């Protein structure tokens, strides 16, 4: 062997060893970061059996009266309840995404400010992202009473944790089995936005909301790239004001408006994540966000990385984003609630007709 060939061979060996070392270090970092993510039990089917048994002391028998928001009179919840259809589990991988409002420790209750279902059909057809309005009025699996769906994040004592109870309530409404969940704090959402370089927000007027924590909403008219704090304020704002003809006037900020804002920014973040060049960038993201997320125990590191990496190849613009039609009513406690006006099967089947065959009565 010539001296030149020998040098080339040694150089190739050094490069190969260096590459394996980098790969090994990346894998180690990823494994350590995954270990920092909180994982909790998630067995909706088993928990459902326990909740429906006589051993659950939380079950109550109540009759709830709803009054239309215009005061026209009482309505039976059964008149407006959306019939759940059972979807074949093998047809889709379903992720429940929950954003927690992080109430302070001196307040006993927790609320889910963001609830979304991300449906990935196994046949490669159009993915579907559906927001479940936080004020959607559904039976609470813990008590049997109808409540706003977001209160389920409180769990049901020793019988069910928060994500399990939210999942069961959503499964009962949609008929779609949930495979995995992820709960993110709003601090985690802020970090994601900053990590991907910000998101574009395009209000038609300057907007503000001084009541948003931890940083008030303050965005100019037109498109601008917002960092984590302003993106967070935008999706959380419940009392957005717009500068119209020199005056600050209230803008529509209903549940459905906030759902649209939340989806817009999550879709943008997914698009930015698709630009990741290699696994080391994904590893760095997981390392930074580990303390801001909770996932179910059944989600393995391999599955999580595979799903996240495969999302890079999705046509983000093609994701279907149907809206659940609702009617605003008042419950007997004087609270405004939203009543679904269509079955979830019809909503998803319209968004992706190929899924219609998997919903059965």
Radius of gyration: 23 Å
Q: Between the first and last Cα atoms, what is the distance in angstroms?
A: 74 Å
- Placed side by side, the strands forming the largest sheet appear as 1-17-10-5-6-7
Give the uncertain stretches in residue-range form.
10-23, 72-85, 103-108
Percentage of residues in DSSP E strands: 15-25%
**Total strands:** 20
What is the string of SSEs from the N terminus onward? HEHEEHEEEEEEHEHEEEEHEEHHEHEEHE
- Provide a count of the helices: 10
Structural class: alpha+beta
Task: Bin the helical content.
Answer: 25-40%
Shape: globular
Biggest pleated-sheet summary: 6 strands, mixed
Mean pLDDT, to the nearest integer, reads 80
Task: Give an account of the 3D structure.
- This protein is of the alpha+beta class.
- It is 35% helix and 22% strand.
- It has helices spanning 3-36, 44-51, 77-80, 162-174, 186-195, 228-236, 255-273, 279-289, 301-310, 344-351; strands spanning 38-40, 66-68, 74-75, 86-87, 92-100, 112-121, 128-131, 137-139, 146-148, 180-185, 199-201, 207-209, 217-219, 224-226, 241-244, 247-250, 293-296, 326-330, 336-340, 359-360.
- The strands form six sheets. Strands 1-17-10-5-6-7 form a six-stranded mixed β-sheet. The chain has a four-stranded antiparallel β-sheet with strand order 3-2-18-19. A four-stranded antiparallel β-sheet has the order 13-12-15-16.
- A hairpin with a 5-residue loop joins β2 (66-68) and β3.
- α6 packs antiparallel against α7.
- The radius of gyration is 23 Å and the shape is globular.
- The termini are far apart.
